[in-house]
Design goal:
The protein is mostly helical. It has 2 helices and no strands.
Length: 71
C-alpha cells in the first residue's frame, strides 16, 4: 500500500479540499474590478452561488441515498 496517499489519510484529504474551497473564494473576490456594480452584484453572486452548490449537494445526497438502487 502507498503510505501518505489521500485515500489513507483523511486529514490530508480534508486539508486539500479546504484549500481548494478557500482558493475559490479568493479568486471570486479578485475579479471585483471587472464586475458591473460590484458592491451590489458580487455579494449577491456569492450568496446565490453558495445556495446553488448546497442545493446540488443535497439533491445528490437524496438521489444517492433514496432513489438509486444498489446492485
Amino acid at each position: 500500500a502507498q503510505v501518505g496517499t489521500v485515500v489513507e489519510n483523511p486529514l490530508l484529504a480534508s486539508v486539500c479540499a479546504t484549500a481548494f474551497a478557500y482558493e475559490g473564494w479568493i479568486i471570486a473576490t479578485a475579479i471585483n474590478a471587472e464586475i458591473k456594480d460590484s458592491k451590489k452584484n458580487l455579494p449577491k453572486a456569492l450568496i446565490i452561488g453558495g445556495i446553488i452548490i448546497a442545493a446540488v449537494y443535497i439533491f445528490y445526497y437524496i438521489v444517492k441515498e433514496f432513489i438509486v438502487i444498489e446492485l
